[in-house]
Write a structure and sequence with these properties.
The protein is 70% helix and 3% strand. The protein is mainly alpha-helical. A hairpin with a 4-residue loop joins strand 1 and strand 2. It is found in: Cell membrane; Membrane.
Length: 272
């Protein structure tokens, strides 16, 4: 199947943009290229890779934590300690207050998003080819952060925390006053203030999810275009420079997602 698609760049590119989907209404696999009319369609590949990478991250950190030493650390422990120091310094500089959830949440967000982004550096045909030959999956996308459902789900979790801490710290009445008395503290502008602040509030999770999705989707698309339009013996000429540059994008997007999470929660935790 892959050889047939390589001979036709258009089919090859469209094939790599399809998810392995299951229609829960009919309990059947959605064929590549078909659009289901039902709402309950799951991108199984994005969910599987997200869960696997999350479990991988937790198992590695748990293993290192169980075997941690106070003497000279090994390479893995030293690397994780550097990550801890990096996250801790950012949380202390950006979050005003005391909250035991912020640092673990920031660490989880940074490492998890980084690992999902890192999947973009795996050769584009490697895992889809294996899944097709061994499990007969019709399609497979391996970069969870290039799926808007995953990125918006993560940003929705951050949005729930924003609402929770806003109401917990300021109270329901205080949170409502914040939405209606800013930026113009006058009864005439209550409705205008509410609409303005509501748009600002809702834009936080939307921009947070779309920013990560857009950057990772475009990066994945470039790898697909290189593989679909160039002969195999010349692909490294563009693949290698783009992969090296993409390492910066992968790290930067994980950092931005973490920083905005800290900033949004810090703003929600400030009492007025």
């Amino acid at each position: 199947m892959f050889l047939e698609k390589i001979s036709n760049p258009q089919k090859y590119i469209s094939h790599h943009l399809n998810h392995f989907q299951i229609d829960l209404c009919n309990f059947k696999i959605v064929a590549p290229g078909n659009v289901s009319s039902h709402f309950w369609v799951l991108n199984i590949d994005s969910m599987i890779f997200s869960l696997v990478l999350g479990c991988f991250f937790l198992s590695i950190f748990y293993t290192v934590a169980k075997k941690i030493t106070t003497g000279i650390p090994n390479g893995l422990q030293a690397c994780i300690e550097l990550i801890f120091d990096f996250i801790s310094s950012n949380v202390k500089s950006m979050y005003q207050g005391q909250n035991p959830l912020i640092a673990p949440l920031s660490l989880t967000v940074f490492i998890w998003v980084f690992l999902m982004n890192l999947m973009d550096l795996i050769p584009i045909d490697f895992l889809p080819f294996i899944s097709e030959k061994l499990f007969h999956f019709p399609a497979m996308r391996i970069v969870p952060s290039a799926d808007i459902n995953i990125t918006l789900s993560m940003s929705l979790g951050v949005f729930v925390l924003i609402l929770f801490y806003s109401i917990k710290i300021k109270g329901l009445f205080g949170f409502f006053k914040e939405l209606t008395l800013q930026p113009f503290n006058h009864p005439v502008f209550f409705i205008f203030n509410f609409l303005l602040e509501l748009v600002s509030l809702l834009s936080k999770p939307i921009s947070l999810g779309l920013r990560l999705f857009g950057n990772m989707y475009s990066g994945e698309m470039i790898f697909i275009l290189i593989a679909g339009l160039l002969p195999w013996w010349s692909q490294f000429v563009l693949n290698v420079p783009w992969a090296i540059f993409h390492i910066l994008i992968i790290s930067l997007q994980a950092f931005i997602f973490m920083v905005l999470t800290i900033v949004y929660l810090s703003m929600a935790s400030q009492s007025h």
